[in-house]
Amino acid sequence: MGRDQGRTLEPTDVDVLDNPAWYSLIGRHAALSEGNDLVRRYLPEVSPFAAVRSWEDPDVWDAIVDLVGPGRPFPLAGAEAPVLPAGWEVIDSGAGVQLVETDALAARPDDEAVVLGAADVPEMLALVARTEPGPFAARTHELGRYVGIRRDGRLVAMAGERLQPAGWTEISAVCTDPDHRRQGLATRLVLDVAHHARARGDRVLLHAAATSTGVIAIYERLGFRLRRRTVFGMVRTPG
């Protein structure tokens, strides 16, 4: 957060978009998180994501160890990877992109979209296993509104809300069963999720792997634009 002559200011769009997981964890999703004033993470059954307030704080590394323990993995995501202290190990790393909505995004509700909840979790997990859109756990649906499309009673497409930093909603878990692709189902659900997020006053954003050029191109045609390139990965604490 910015400061002005001793007054704490509200976070700007730059603040929340540069560190969306942190502002989600200390804001709307605080009840689904654990940690301290330097580092927080989602409850394991909700999401594997975690965030730090600032990598520039020298105490952040000890705070991470206090939270996850020695010799344990900790996820990284942001504009650039921090320089690790001695004893820390990189487990995995990758490049990503952050996309944000523009005025060209024609969000609209979808009459066929059904809201998914706890009773649908087995089907949601099965669809995620078939399509691998990203991490999804037994309580991930509690992060926001998740919707799907069914064919003959079977869940074949899904999308929903993940991170929710102030004023923004991240669209995530966008996936379609391989037997039902090229029908525009995922696009319809993205536009439905965007419509309902906008209805409560939010704007929408997306994250994707930089290697998913085809997916990124689809989102850009829908009305999203590249805001920044990101890095993501996993490190291991000393232990």
User: What's the β-strand tally?
Assistant: 13
What is the N-to-C order of secondary-structure elements (H for helix, E for strand)? EEHHEEEHEEEHEEEHEHE
pLDDT below 50 for ≥5 consecutive residues: which ranges? 1-9
Strand order of the largest sheet: 6-13-7-12-11-10-9-8
Helix content: 10-25%
**Shape category:** globular
Oligomeric grouping of the chains: single chain
The helix tally amounts to 6
Largest sheet: 8 strands, mixed
Measured on Cα atoms, how large is the radius of gyration? Answer: 18 Å
**Structural class per helix/strand content?**
alpha+beta
Strand content: 25-35%
Folded structure, characterized:
It is a single chain. With 239 residues, the chain is α+β, with helices and mostly antiparallel strands. It has an 8-stranded mixed beta sheet with strand order 6-13-7-12-11-10-9-8. A hairpin with a 2-residue loop joins strand 9 and strand 10.
